[in-house]
Amino acid sequence: MTCSDALRETRSTCSYCGVGCGVIIESRGATITGVRGDPDHPANFGRLCTKGSTLHLTARPEVTQQTRLLQPQLRLQRQASPLALDWDSALDLASQRLADVVQRHGPNALGFYLSGQLLTEDYYVFNKLVKGLLGSNNLDTNSRLCMSSAVAGYKITLGADAPPASYTDVDHAHCLFISGSNTAWAHPILFRRIEDAKRARPELKIVVIDPRRTDTVELADLHLALQPGTDVMLYHGMLHLMLRQGWTQPAYIAAHTHGFEALVEQVRDCTPERTAQVCGISVEDLLEATRLFATSPATLSLYCQGLNQSSSGTDKNAALINLHLATGQIGRPGAAPFSLTGQPNAMGGREVGGLSNLLSAHRDLANPVHRAEVAALWGVPDVPSVPGKSAVEMFEAAADGEIKALWIACTNPAQSLPDQATVRRALERAEFVVLQEAFATTATAAYADLLLPATTWGEKTGTVTNSERRISRVRAATPPSGEARHDWAIGVALAQRLEARLRPGQASLFPYDTQDALRGTEAIWNEHRESTRGRDLDITGLSYALLDAQGPQQWPWPSGASQGKERLYEDGVFPTPDGKARFHSTTYHPVAEARDEAYPFSLNTGRLRDQWHGMSRTGTLGRLFGHVAEPAVQVNPQDLARLGWEDGALVRVRSRRGQVVLPVQASAEQGPQQVFIAMHWGQEFLGGHDEAGQALTGVNALLPSAYCPRSKQPELKHAAVQLEAAALPWSLVAMAWLPAQQVLRVRESLKALMAEFDYSSCVPFSDTVPLEQAPTQKAGLLFRAAASRAPAPALLRQIETLLGLDPRQALHYSDASHDQYRTVQVLADGEQRHVGAWLLAGDTRAQAWLRPLLQEAQDVSAYGQRLLSPGATPPVAQAARSALVCSCLGVNEQSIRHQLAQSRGSDDERLKELQCALKCGTNCGSCVPELKRLVRWVRPNTEAPELAI
């Protein structure tokens, strides 16, 4: 073995949610070979969720070669195939085009849209480039979509954007008040900590406020399934009850707050009866939730997008914080309002001013003193006072022609922003669109004139800050893939070229070493550190060396301190002019778009357990589709029965802005007249066109561009929609195993065909093997389509060719007069025969038994021509296949039900017996809430059900 082949281990940080888990990356040479949780990282102590534990699989060469953007590329025409370009030519072109726009229209004709997945150093450079060098505040990030209401809520009440709690407060809380957060899926490792706390202290009370009955509810003592958007009324009603019952803390209110009298007047009419009616809950549950919150020795609120992504997001956040101030539930172990950050470094981006209304170190753009401080730090005459465009405003301005050029880094607005019709009009109308991105497969990539390859997880160096204000180092385990460059280095190279055009002869504002990543990032971070001196997030006592020696640390950590602060406001002093917190008095407003007779359903969006955002990374792994295999719209079973639809029927979901076609799925998690679609399903995996022939772009085409007037965060969690049966009588389903090095490339080719149908989807799948065997698992693709009439036979043959259906090895049947078409490829494996691929068109009922034949490699020697049978019943008896529950160990639902049917004892005893027998839930723990639900549902039988595979 050569030195380059030796196993290396690199401590770094996970690139997914805001929990900020530490990871240890294993690598050999330039290849990442494994990942495990860092046992010394205080965010996770070695644990990882289903997503984090598969990070190494997304960095395999067969994945990167098929999905990564590996060299600069230029499109001479939109939607055309890009041409390769060298870096100097690409950056020269970019600087020339941007400078030209500035000279013709001024700097505010530029828009920069960044990402909460950038590192702090990346953020800092671009913030300085746009606000310092170019003289525009048109820099915003996708953190606007997830955290800006939390920022505004903290500032308007407590005085600063600083979550006052730590993860250790979970261990001290007597009441956990989880509001608008499916923590079990969105922040899994924090939820493991909550499970541990509940197990150690059964008296810990957990209240969950959510319209849906999510996996988080499985651990709750009380679930308030409130009507969508009624959170402010709920909190006002709770405060009304606290006042009536004498559960407030007058001494704390008098000593540490202002504005309580106005709030008391505001909630006077929010009686229990009115609150219960508006929120759709019982008075008894309202009283119990209020009692637990106010009278528990320590109440910790955990909240996320259910509060943030709303046209009244700031009011929701502030109304919840009001309850903490009114009851003194703040500044003590286990007592605080704790906003859970959505992305891995949304907090770091806020720290350096990475929103259009912020400047470095939590300074406000509107404050002239703050602008002067930053201008002096950067060495520029001034920072412009004109407010910048927020995310929604920026793309609206581009669609209207006001913004001429867009620079997009590490995010996918053609999937993630609401009102997709406007977003795509903006991308089409802009004179120049640059996409700085690691992946070439995002929907936004098709609109870019210039594509610049950026490094990603495993290749980057710098820092991130998690939800509890903890700064962690990110370290590179391998060199950049292809010609990819670090995001901050791309920003520096662009800035230096713009300086030569816009301020020739002057000293550079960007003197960072782009040849040495560690030296470059450390110099940037040190400059950021200096900007925090004397601020609420003062980190002047920290350094790269200290973080390397002592591990991740919390801010503030000012110069001279020996450690950071675990929790804030313990002395009752807040970062306001007089040191007192402010109650925020606001009127309850319903959702921006209430359901009505024309649009009678409330649409909710949210995460899946095993997927992340637009799935540019997680969507490369078939094993992460085992739990939820395909897109669907979930509907309450009563509504489904009333409408007369069966599971799997295609329905058209319409809002006032757009539509999407999806299979319908009964789900008891939804309340009546409420539907749910996962936020991840965009044009990358879901396709088709409407009646006018316009391409369907995914779930976010349904959502309004309405946003909170204070935080500018859009209402991504709600839209009024109607459902109607999609009259698409012709259907197609195809499935095939493919060589691992071809799966994702074939998927990209199939994406080009998806718009040929009224409905289509294409997702990867894999065989179910334990995680340690994942590098050897087989992979394939599942393609679905439906249309009002059968397409030309040539299109079917094109799909067959892409899926490797070899006519020489296939059984085939066609009946053109009835639009029937079936092909099944059988492969020899010694004395056995296995299905390698199949395609059904017209009558697709046989998919129910062909699918498990293929996925489980069952011997089909006895089938012969009967493999072409059109019926839903298999011609030869076979076992069915159910959804995967435990992704790590490859355990499906039917196996779990079989085991539970044979077990006896208490629910806890049966769960332990199940885990001992099948090992499910013993690795990352993400499936434990679902296992508990199955334990409760599946009662012991005298005869165990037939075991399915």
Automatic annotation (TrEMBL):
Keywords: 4Fe-4S, Iron, Iron-sulfur, Metal-binding, Molybdenum, Nitrate assimilation, Oxidoreductase. Residues 7-63 form the 4Fe-4S Mo/W bis-MGD-type domain. SUPFAM superfamilies: ADC-like, Formate dehydrogenase/DMSO reductase, domains 1-3. Its cofactor is Mo-bis(molybdopterin guanine dinucleotide); [4Fe-4S] cluster. The keyword Nucleus does not apply. It holds the Pfam family Molybdop_Fe4S4. Belongs to the prokaryotic molybdopterin-containing oxidoreductase family. NasA/NapA/NarB subfamily. This is Molybdopterin-dependent oxidoreductase. It comes from Curvibacter microcysteis.
